[in-house]
Amino acid sequence: METRGVGTGGHEPVACDVLVIGSGAGGAVVADRLTAAGRDVVLVEEGPDVPADLALSPAEAMRRQWRCGGLMTAFGAPLLAYAEGRCVGGGTEINAAILQRIPAALLDAWSRRYAIAEYGADALAPYFREAEALLGASPPERPQGSVTTRFAAAAAALGWDHQSLTQAKDGCLGGATCAEGCPPGRRSMASAVLPRARARGLRVIADCRVVRLERRGARVVRVLARRRDGAGPARPMTFRPEHVFLCAGAIHTPALLRRSGLGRNVGASLRAHPVVRAAALFPEPLTVRHSATPLSAVTEFMPDLRLGGSILLPGYLGMMLAEDWQRRGWLWAHRERVGLYYAMARAEGRGQVIPIPGLVEPLVRYRATDDDWELLRRGLLALSELLFAAGAERVVPSLFGHAGWTSPGAARAELAAPLRRSRAGLATLHLFSSCPPGEEAALTATDSFGRLRGLSNLTVADASQLPEAPGVNPQLGVMAHAARAADAFLAASDAQARRRAARDDA
């Protein structure tokens, strides 16, 4: 016996046309598109369903919306700290809602390098436009506060190209609370996309972790999951979908595939945007609580490097200081005068995602290349120049054991030499490329439209499909790729239905 209700667990399989695993920028867009086409869609999300208008403290937001409280690490030389969303809406509930198109030259290069059919800047442009319209993408409207104005003025004084970043927002009130749920400003998957799909009949099952995909021949025939209902123990759930869209992100999509024994070239090509950070101490208070999240970026060195401002609230500053409290802890007493900034590299380094039997979280490895380290050195040098030009009295980089520089000359002298890798504290919010698409089978995990090789009814549609690091915030690119994959699925299934009808008529 099968049921088409959501249910709370037990042994009755849940049947549906399409099961979407993951509710972030990929899964929500797929669910929206497929329900608009009349498909019966169930979406499962490992994390909780947190109301989009709920105001959360930093500690509560990290507990309820961030995977493992925001404390995740990729092992390598050095360690790479990373963060992921784990709630309905995924990473779009914890990011700054910055929307940037992947540079056209990169899209065209990827099309050639990976032999991706019907791809490139022209093919993806309509999907970018749709995503921007859906989320109300627009430049900053309200005053940005001194954290951003100092940064932008310094870039102009140095003669560096810089721009205001486009954001998905609706009534931003400032306060830099993007990472805490942001009521009512951010237009995220939970606030702007999933409600439309729910109105068309989308069934959302939160607190439901998929543990295995079972295949028979060339099809996934069962999806095994465990759902936690309240404070009680997790209960088993089984799904029998006609088609599966796997949208669990660059870490958990390959982890689930490998745990299920599915796919080739899965989880071995993880890429990231490693970031080196700096805390800048200014002479006057920065009025952080009255500022928007920094939305100005230095684009002078793109596509390889981008400089910008980071999350500003005291809790996040405290996390950076706690990494090396002995050297940085004194800044806490001056936190009203401290801003956080970053240099982000479009890196070539690669990593691996390796599921560990019995553990929820996979082992993640990452190693930056020599060229990546040179980019990070250049980025930190440029960032220090910029912050001193902005009036900083001291710039403290995320280098362990470093007391900071008090002049641009001191930074230049030290950064004339390569970074000492063992001292670098790197972090990232951007992970991708672990299941790349294309017809170059030796390099890719799926075909050009996300269909996993060897299976006829499984499509990947999330950040793992970005072939390489894009050098910009990836959300818009993920949404565009997911919409393209959904359209390809609909076109193929409609064509199959027409062929079946023609055979029946004959």
TrEMBL record:
This is Glucose-methanol-choline oxidoreductase N-terminal domain-containing protein. The keyword DNA-binding does not apply. Residues 249-263 form the Glucose-methanol-choline oxidoreductase N-terminal domain. It comes from the Bacteria. Pfam families: GMC_oxred_C, GMC_oxred_N. The keyword Membrane does not apply. GO terms for molecular function: flavin adenine dinucleotide binding; oxidoreductase activity, acting on CH-OH group of donors. Keywords: FAD, Flavoprotein, Oxidoreductase. PANTHER family: LONG-CHAIN-ALCOHOL OXIDASE. Signal peptide: none annotated.
